[in-house]
Fold this protein.
Amino acid sequence: MSRRTVAVVAPYYPPKVGGVEHYAARIARALADSPDLCPVVLTTRQGGLRSTVSVEDGVRVVRLAAWLRLSNTPLGPLWPLQLRWWLWRTGAELVNAHAPVPGLADLALAVAGRRPTVLTYHAGSMHKGEAGSGAADRLIGWYERHLLPRVFRRATRLVAVSPVSLAAGHPHAVQITPGVDTARFTPGEPASRREPVVVYAGRLDRSSAWKGVDVLLHAFALLAAGTGLPRARLRLVGGGDALPDLLALADRLGIADRVTADGELTGEQLVTAVRTAAVLVLPSRTEAESFGMALVEAMACGTPVVGSAVGGIPHVVTDRRTGLLVPPGDAGALAGALRELLTDGPLADRLGAAGCRQAREHYDWDDLMTRYLELFRSLPSEPR
């Protein structure tokens, strides 16, 4: 039986760390393990002006050169021709594109021809809503009002990763959330027995300031200024060009000696960081946070979580049942939630155990990828 090739098109792909990257890689790996489907990944490379082709984790990966970048958006003038060429060259019969980063996914749908297309949309509105972002927000608003609806209509099917994804609610949309590898992210000892370490795991880019890591630093400074938690520490797990700014802020706040930056961790190092944390925090400020994959990874480890009540986070965390929710951008409320979990052992253990059950019952990657493969198989083949 011949295998049907699915082109997974994503603006970024591992080794770059991020939720969209991990999600796309999961789909590619599931396709590679399928008896009747196989993947080719079309993505961008970080440097250089020539495309590269490699096999990574058993998956063929084509990396197209990005000639320039606008904020977090890579761009290449040759992409329309290159995408069309590689779809033909690899025999792709179906396209699965991933957004919200504009550009590559939009073009992939435009040049797909008669191939069925599945667009996976990973975010709510990308409005930054921050000082100095007026021009960017106007451009984002124009794109989301005028161009994005056309992209949605062009797709054969839409996948919304959460109820707040801009793709949610469309007639031809289904919801398939991100997930967690429950064979790797396994429960650690009860949270009350762990060292008082607060962990943030995610991007630390200036273009991702909406992640709210600066709010977390202010909250930790309030926590450290109190009494009773002299051993509390904050670990920043992730990389990006905002890291020097954040460490400088920690110094100004007088907490530099209690903040460590571990860089991007993967594999068992990441699992260990999450499994041994007393609390994992996702302090995002805007609707751009449509899910929060780090939350379910922590929950699967029995690690109590604190998230902002914004975007898709309240659809993952139920306040005081599977974690704690705080108003976005409120450093005082975040400090209070951290203090509560670091000082109330029974509460931390109860929320950690409930979160673990939630993650394993609803967010197992194997179950979610089975739904993806069924979606791909339900679409007709391109006439040859």
The CA atoms of residues 82 and 138 lie 30 Å apart. The first helix runs from residue 19 to 32.
